[in-house]
Structures are given as structure tokens and as C-alpha cells.
Amino acid sequence: MLEYLKLVQDLEMYGVCYFNIKNVKGTELLLGVTALGLNIYKVDDRLNPTISFPWSEIKNLKYKGTKFVIRPNDKNSKNFVVITTNEKVSKQILNLGIGNHELYVRRRKPDSPEVAKMKEKANEVRKTKLVIRQKYNSERVAREEAEKRETMYKQQLEDMKIEMERKQTSLLEAERTIRKLQEQLEDLQRSKAELEAQRTELQEMMDRLEQHKHMEAEEKARLEEEIRAKHAEVQRIQDEVARKDEETRRLQEAVDEARRKEEEAQLRQEEEERRREEERRQKEIEEANRTEKELESLSDADNTLPDVKEVNEQLKDQLKTLQDQLNEAKTNEESELERIHRINLLEGRNKYKTLRDIRKGNTSRRVEMFENM
Hints:
- By secondary structure, the chain is of the alpha+beta class.
- Helix content is 70%, strand content 11%.
- It has eight helices and seven strands.
- Helix 3 packs antiparallel against helix 4.
- It is a peripheral membrane protein.
- It holds the Pfam family ERM_helical.
- It is found in: Cell junction, Adherens junction; Cell membrane; Cell projection, Rhabdomere; Cytoplasm, Cytoskeleton.
- Keywords: Cell membrane, Cytoplasm, Cytoskeleton, Membrane.
């Protein structure tokens, strides 16, 4: 409702009570009684007054029948008379004039001691409420920050537990691989030792065969058979050594690959932790700035009183949009008031600019203008 009043108070016909009058020459005019003074309008133009008398220039109002007399404060200016349609209208103009004049004077009077004391007390109460609100907001922000940190620490703890479990699993797997590799190495060493022993024994048998070239055929055949069997055994052991050597090499490569992956995972984890820490610090800074701005806005909102002439821009845009839609929806020709309002907008005139222009000059000259209309 307050925003609506802020908008409509700038309209030309807002707060104006119109009355049909005549001047002493009998010219039909309109008298507008407003909170700022008395305005004289032409009959066909209720938006733009031609003459205006602010309440600060008016000393007294009185009437007798249809004759309404306005007495200015300027001693050099004569009273000016308007003719109303009947005595009832004169009484209405007098009552409205007295009420608006009293309000006009009251708004410009200095505050009485009682009112000043009440305002001072109200300011103290408002400041106390502001302090309480700021304290409450600070505590609320601190509590929210503590809850966020608690949630973040819990999440970090869960992540650390998961990472420790993963590392424990990787460590157990690496230990199993290393044990298997050690066993393979031991088997390989035993196989190599056995191969060397078999080769030595084969060489001895070859030497013995060479030394006993003239042994009997049966003995020679038996020795040759043993040599062939030993050759086969040596070949088998050699193949076994090669197979175990290949398996050992593959296990070593697997261990190296696992170690490399573990190092890469460690680097990624450290990078992720640094990134999270940076994001956390950035969020804390942004949250602190946002909280500070909120507290400042709350403080400014409590310390500043609303300006009567301040108009909500969003509502003005909505009003303009509605006006455009209304203009598009119109199918008949515009009225005289709409035409005058459109001309005022095109020429950049408004209510306050018009009043400033027509109040220029002294009161006597404006009274003469009214009588000569």
C-alpha cells in the first residue's frame, strides 16, 4: 500500500478536490484544493493548473453565501474572490481549506518537547533493536559457519577413512605381490643352483665317458643313456628357470606398475586436497563478505528512514508495462485528459515542475491574472 501511495502521489490529479467556480468577470473555472495550496484550473484541463497559491501565502478563508473570499498574507495584495455554485459548496471548500492548511502548518512546525522526547525514545529503541538484531545475526552466522565446518570436517573424516581403507587394501595387495615375488626369486635361485649342479654332473659324466673310451659296450651304452637323461633333465630345469625368470619379470613389472599407480594416486589425492582446501578458503571468504554485506544492509535499512519521494523502480516499470498494455488494448479514441497527459509526458512536464512555474512572481500579480481570466 505504501509503495502504491508513493507512485500515485506524483500524479497530477492525486489529492485534488475540484469545485466549479467563477471569477468576478463570470469566467467558469475550477478550484482545486490540495495539501500544498489552492490551484486554479481551466474547465477543460484538470491536469495543468494555470494559477497556484501555496498555503504559506494564504492568511484567511471565509465565505458568505456563494461568495468565497481568500485573504493573502501579502499586505500589498488585495483579497481575491471566487463565486461558487451554492453555499454548501462554499462550506465544503472552507472545511477542506482549513484542514489542509492546519496539516500544512503542522508538518512544518518544529517538534514539541514531548514529540522530540518520543522521537528520541523511539530512536533509542530502534538502536537497541538494531544492536540485538546485529548480535542475533552474528550469532546465527557463527552458528551456521560452525555447522558448515562440522559437516565439512565429518566429510573430510569419511574421505580419510575411505582413503585409508583403500591404501590398506593396496598395501596388503602389494605385500602379497612382494611375498609372491620373493618366493619366485627363491624358486628361481634354487632352480638355477639345481641347473648348475646338473650341468656339473653332466660335465663330469662327459669327462668320464671321454676317459673310458675303451670300456665295454654295455657299460658305454648305460653311460650314454645316463648322459641323455641328464641332458633332458638339464633342459627341463633350464626351461623351468626360463619360465620362472619370465614370471619373476612379470611380477616385478606388476610391482613397479602398482607403485607407479600408487604414486599417481597419491599425487592426485594431494592435488584434490589442495583444491578442496582452496575452495573451502574461497567459500569462507565469500561467505564472510556476503555476511558482512548482509549486516551492513540490515544496519543501513534500520538506520535510514524511508524517503517519501522515493519510488520503487520495479513498481514504476510494472506501471509503465501496464500502461503500455492499456494503450495497446484501447480501441476507441483517447479522451481529452489522456491527450493532455500524453502531451505533458512528451514535453517533460510533471506535477511539481508545473507548480514551480505557475508560482513564480508575487501574489498580487497572480490575483490579477485570476481576475482577468
